[in-house]
Amino acid sequence: MTILHIDGLDLRYATDAGPAAALTDIRLRVAGGEAIGIVGESGCGKSTLLKAIMGVMPRNATITGGAIRFDGTDLVTAGAEAWRRARWKGIAMIAQSALNALNPVKRVGAQIAEAITAHETWPRAEVEARVAELLALVGVDPGRARDYPHQFSGGMRQRVLIAMALALRPPVLLADEPTTALDVIVQDQIFRRIRTLRGELGFAMLLVTHDLALVVENCDRVVVMYGGLVVEEGTVADIMAAPSHPYTLGLYNALARPGQRHQPISIPGRPPDLVDPPAGCRFAPRCPFALPRCHTEAPAMQVVSDGHAARCLRVAEMDTLRPTAALPETWEGPQP
Ligand SMILES: Nc1ncnc2c1ncn2[C@@H]1O[C@H](COP(=O)(O)OP(=O)(O)OP(=O)(O)O)[C@@H](O)[C@H]1O
């Protein structure tokens, strides 16, 4: 059953250079308990999408179209009060950096308690019991509730943010690069914990990351974003077996895989200027497979198979293009 339905969402940022189309026609259905990975390079609109879902957009952002339906209500038309009710109890978010998100002069336990008391009026003893339960849930000794954030390691601080996000048992958890500041071993521990918690508590998760490998390990489905658009979506299995957008092929090349013959290949160039995006396919200027019409025709999502779609005019040829995409020279030389 769909718990969160993003339907044709458009968002613009007002900038000195003019309106920047940060999100264009985003469509996404999240089923209860499902984990979706949102991948793409920096600047593709991943964080903007999560902020829009939470209703915590910067002041210069405007939603210019579409709906964000949560639990039967379109939060975009229902407005600030509906969003306030949905936030944390319905949809919670783990921020990127625990250092910025935690108050350095407040004890950790008190900060988790605040995540509860800001929304619920529970007796004090119940709040304290829940704080202890939450710390235990994320693998932190509840005895450390009276410590300050600086007494915790980076990984433990990130666990505290997870505890805060889960405090009111939200059915949807948004995670924006929750482990970027941590080393790979700690990152692995945190994700193992998140997987266990999802198994126990059954929340749905939207995980934003530039790391396709994290998505493969932690998610059921993948959404690939480029230049504010969804360019490919499908199950993790479908997208790993048959990536069908040249941009996804580029991201795929950047993955380190066992038995790989060469170094990870990076995609040359930069994501598009969202104030003045390319006329046709937004990826065409960087795409080794772009044809002349790709520079003038903006592709719609094309069905690859049931539940798998890609926004590319050459999607039907992808089986023949894919082997070429795996070669480093494809991404170096002139377009074939
Ligand atoms: N407050 C803002 N005002 C103007 N432009 C913004 C603002 N916030 C983000 N942008 C622009 O919107 C686009 C999308 O940014 P966003 O942060 O959503 O991307 P991202 O994919 O999450 O990147 P990252 O991984 O670096 O967080 C970028 O071009 C960015 O420069």
Task: Characterize the biggest β-sheet.
Answer: 8 strands, mixed
CATH topology of the largest domain: Rossmann fold
Which structural class do the helices and strands define? alpha/beta
Question: Runs with pLDDT <50, length 5+?
Answer: none
Percent of residues in helices: 25-40%
Mean pLDDT figure: 92
Bound molecules: adenosine-5'-triphosphate
Strand percent estimate: 15-25%
Cα(first) to Cα(last) distance is 44 Å
Q: How many domains is the backbone divided into?
A: 2
Membrane topology: Peripheral membrane protein
Pfam families: ABC_tran, oligo_HPY
Family: Belongs to the ABC transporter superfamily.
Domain ABC transporter: 6-252
Q: Your description of this structure?
A:
This protein is of the alpha/beta class and 336 residues long. The protein has 2 domains: 2-219, P-loop containing nucleotide triphosphate hydrolases (Rossmann fold), CATH 3.40.50.300; 245-331, no CATH class. Helix content is 32%, strand content 24%. It is built from 12 helices and 12 strands. The protein has helices at residues 46-54, 75-78, 80-86, 98-101, 108-117, 124-137, 154-166, 184-201, 212-218, 236-241, 246-253, 318-325; strands spanning 2-15, 18-31, 35-39, 61-70, 73-74, 91-94, 172-176, 204-209, 221-226, 229-235, 302-305, 308-310. The strands form 2 sheets. Strands 6-7-8-3-9-10-12-11 form an 8-stranded mixed β-sheet, sandwiched between helices. It has a 4-stranded antiparallel β-sheet with strand order 2-1-4-5. The longest helix is centred in the middle third of the chain and has 18 residues, at 184-201. The chain is globular and about 65 Å long. It starts with a strand and ends in an 11-residue tail after the last helix. The relative contact order is 0.13. The structure holds adenosine-5'-triphosphate (ATP). Adenosine-5'-triphosphate binds at residues 13, 15, 20, 22, 40, 42-48, 58, 60, 274. Residues 6-252 form the ABC transporter domain. GO terms for molecular function: ATP binding; ATP hydrolysis activity. It holds the Pfam family oligo_HPY.
